[in-house]
Amino acid sequence: MMTADYALTLWNAAGNHLDLFGMLGLSLGFAAGMMPRRSWILLTSAACSACFGLHYLHLGAQTGMAMCAIAVLQSLVSARFIGPSSRAGWVAPLFVTSSLVAACLTLATWDGWASACAGAGTLLATAARLQAGSQTMRRLFLCASSFWASHNLIVGSVFGLTCDLLTISGLTIALLRAGERRAGAAAPDAALSL
Questions:
Q1: In whole angstroms, what is the distance from residue 186 CA to residue 116 CA?
Q2: What is the pLDDT of residue 62?
Q3: Phi, psi for 157 (deg, rounded to 5)
Q4: In the chain, is it the N or the C terminus that has fewer CB atoms within a 10 Å radius of its CB?
Q5: Nearest CA among 158, 172, 74, 80 for reference residue 123
C-alpha cells in the first residue's frame, strides 16, 4: 500500500469522528479562559485551536481552518517568547507577518460573512496574544470570541458556538474575579490612609 492509500484510509476512518475534535476543542476553549496563568491560557488556547481547525476541516469552513492554524502558531510563540518583562525582538515582526498571512488567507478562502468574522476574530486574538498581562489579554479574547461566535453560527458549528459562549462566560468570570481581588486589595489600603 502506498502512502496516499494509507492517508486515504486514515481519512475515511477518522472523517466521521472529526466532531470529536469539536467536543475536545469546546472543552479546551472553556478551560483556557479559566486558567490562572498567562502561559497556561495560551497553551490551552493552542490546543483548542488545533482541535477546532480539524473540526472546521470536517465542516468545510476553510477560513476558520486557516485562522486556527495561525492561532496555534501565535499562541505557542506568545506563550514562550512574550513575558511580563521581556519580548524577543523577532516576535513583533512575526506577528505582523502572520496577520498579513491571515488577511491573505481570509481573502483566498472568502465565503462571505463567515470569513469576515473569522478574520476579525483572528486579528483581535492576535492583539490579545501580544499582551504581557493576562487581564488585557482576556478582554481582547472576549471581543475575538464574539466574532468567532458569529462565524460558528454562520457555518453551523454547534461545538464552536457552544465553545464561544462558554469561553465568553469563562472570560467574564475570570475578569470579574480579578476585579474583586483588586477591589479587596484596595480596601485595606484606603483604610490605612484614613
A1: 42
A2: 96
A3: -95, 100
A4: C
A5: 74
Grid cell in block for residue 100: 498579513
Measured CA to CA, the distance from residue 36 to residue 56 in angstroms comes to: 28
Residue 103 in grid coordinates: 488577511
Q: How far from each other are the two terminal CA atoms of the chain, in whole angstroms?
A: 81
> What single DSSP character describes residue 132?
S
Residue 135 has pLDDT above 70, yes or no: yes
CA distances from 163 to 5, 67, 128, 160, 187 (A): 34, 16, 18, 5, 36
As a whole number of angstroms, the distance between CA 2 and CA 8 comes to 10
Helix (H, G, I), strand (E, B) or coil at 82: strand
φ, ψ of residue 193 to 5 degrees: the values are -80, -15
Q: What pTM did the predictor assign? A: 0.79
Distances (CA, A) of 37 to 26, 83, 84, 137: 20, 11, 12, 11
Query: pLDDT at position 88, please?
Result: 82
Distance CA 10, CA 130 (A): 37
Adjacent-strand bridge partners of 82: 87
**What mean pLDDT comes out for the span 9-19?**
66
